[in-house]
UniProtKB/TrEMBL annotation:
<dbReference type="Pfam" id="PF10609">
    <property type="entry name" value="ParA"/>
</dbReference>
<dbReference type="InterPro" id="IPR002744">
    <property type="entry name" value="MIP18-like"/>
</dbReference>
<comment type="subunit">
    <text>Homodimer.</text>
</comment>
<keyword id="KW-0378">Hydrolase</keyword>
<dbReference type="InterPro" id="IPR019591">
    <property type="entry name" value="Mrp/NBP35_ATP-bd"/>
</dbReference>
<dbReference type="GO" id="GO:0005524">
    <property type="term" value="F:ATP binding"/>
</dbReference>
<keyword id="KW-0408">Iron</keyword>
<keyword id="KW-0547">Nucleotide-binding</keyword>
<dbReference type="InterPro" id="IPR027417">
    <property type="entry name" value="P-loop_NTPase"/>
</dbReference>
<comment type="similarity">
    <text>In the C-terminal section; belongs to the Mrp/NBP35 ATP-binding proteins family.</text>
</comment>
<feature type="binding site">
    <location>
        <begin position="131"/>
        <end position="138"/>
    </location>
    <ligand>
        <name>ATP</name>
    </ligand>
</feature>
<keyword id="KW-0411">Iron-sulfur</keyword>
<comment type="function">
    <text>Binds and transfers iron-sulfur (Fe-S) clusters to target apoproteins. Can hydrolyze ATP.</text>
</comment>
<dbReference type="Pfam" id="PF01883">
    <property type="entry name" value="FeS_assembly_P"/>
</dbReference>
<dbReference type="InterPro" id="IPR000808">
    <property type="entry name" value="Mrp-like_CS"/>
</dbReference>
<comment type="similarity">
    <text>In the N-terminal section; belongs to the MIP18 family.</text>
</comment>
<dbReference type="InterPro" id="IPR044304">
    <property type="entry name" value="NUBPL-like"/>
</dbReference>
């Protein structure tokens, strides 16, 4: 017969997907009862009652208990008391604050929940910029992020286009972040952790905050969000060289940049301004992505609808590499019926493979360099 201890031991291996800690360690498993026929009943105490990952947790617990020989499994769900939640939030803060640097990363005077910005942080920051909107920055951001995640990297995305946030929609994210006593947990999709202003805006109403508020928002995305450890943090910047772009430059001086352009010469000229700013602020430019570079015809030939050469010209001008030329194409809707993420190209598609290559190239360059 199974014992309470057997069950606790088994559930030590089941983690809360958002906090990446075992349910047992989080004291989320209570009231365990087992009868002679190995029918198990227990209560799972969720961090918040509307926990978006309830179904996942339920399945993981049931599967694990069946694995060790449970017969029927009956779960009851509860939620933590305010006091328990506050204690958990305090623990999350303390853990981040107690990181190797001992200060958990300072964000302009605030102690951050995530030590991403600490001086000994191993996280590689990549800001995706462009001279103007509509060239595919957000598309590049979400596809590069998912390509890196497919390689097993731990990846976060900050949608820093505060007015023009689009990452949640593009990735097909419907849920809002879980907030535990003011500690915000990023939303995870395609194994990428995401934070966006879009999560906090009701009914798509316009965001009317101005300069200082924007900077504060961006800092909050670091200081109030429990990112956990990340290998890569990709930032989708607003177009141009405005306040937010400048803020990123000052907050994350170690950030590298990818500049997105279309193949048209004028677009490349405008993008050069974003590049000039990166150079002026001493941000290393990882390279240029030429998006909408051509249309691939069924016979294999390429139709350069929007002109040709802009990406290469810009890369030369900025003395950097042309990382990729991404053709025109919509993600295959058929392939993503189950999990509609309107702007994510499936890994096996032509464009999906281009993003995989780009991710491999970037990993090789950054990880060889930092050893
Ligand atoms: N390679 C591409 N082929 C076809 N459509 C694309 C491509 N890249 C981006 N798009 C589309 O172009 C529009 C602008 O892209 P987006 O990533 O939102 O640009 P930005 O973030 O620079 O404003 C979106 O509707 C997007 O789906
Ligand atoms: Mg965008």
């Amino acid at each position: 017969m199974l014992t309470e201890q057997n069950i606790l031991d088994a559930l030590k291996e089941v983690k809360d997907p958002e906090l990446n800690k075992s349910l047992v360690e989080l004291n989320m498993i209570r009231n365990i009862q087992v009868d002679q026929d190995n029918n198990v009943s227990l209560t799972v105490v969720l961090t918040i009652s509307g926990c978006p990952l309830k179904a996942t947790i339920e399945q993981d617990v049931v599967n694990k208990l069946k694995e060790i020989g449970a017969n029927q499994v009956e779960l009851t769900f509860g939620s933590m008391t305010d006091q328990e939640r506050a204690a958990l939030a305090q623990r999350l803060r303390a853990e981040a604050g107690g990181g190797q640097s001992g200060q958990g990363g300072q964000v302009q005077g605030h102690t951050a929940i995530s030590p991403l910005l600490a001086s000994d942080s191993k996280t590689q920051f990549i800001a995706v910029t462009s001279g103007k909107g509509g060239v595919g920055k957000s598309t590049v951001t979400v596809n590069l992020a998912t390509a890196l995640a497919r390689m097993g990297k731990r990846v976060g995305v900050i949608d820093a286009d505060i007015y023009g946030f689009s990452v949640p929609d593009m990735m097909g994210i419907k849920q809002r972040p879980t907030v535990i006593d003011e500690v915000i947990l990023p939303v995870e999709k395609h194994r990428v952790k995401v934070m966006s202003m879009g999560f906090f805006v009701e009914d798509n109403s316009p965001v009317i905050w101005r300069g200082p508020m924007l900077g504060k928002m961006l800092r909050n995305f670091f200081s109030e969000v429990h990112w956990g450890e990340l290998d890569y943090m990709i930032l989708d910047l607003p177009p141009g060289t405005g306040d937010v772009a400048l803020d990123v430059h000052t907050m994350i001086p170690q950030s590298k940049e990818i500049i997105v352009t279309t193949p048209h010469a004028t677009a490349a000229f405008v993008a050069a301004r974003a590049g000039a700013m990166a150079l002026k602020t001493n941000h290393e430019i990882l390279g240029v992505v030429e998006n909408m570079a051509y249309y691939q015809l069924p016979d294999g030939s390429k139709d350069y609808i929007f002109g040709r050469g802009g990406g290469e010209k810009l890369a030369n001008e900025l003395k950097t590499e042309l990382l990729a030329q991404v053709p025109l194409g919509q993600p295959d809707r058929e392939a993503s019926v189950d999990n509609p993420s309107p702007s994510i190209y499936p890994a096996e598609s032509l464009i999906g493979r281009i993003y995989t290559q780009m991710a491999e190239n970037i990993v090789q360059r950054l990880e060889v360099k930092t050893g």
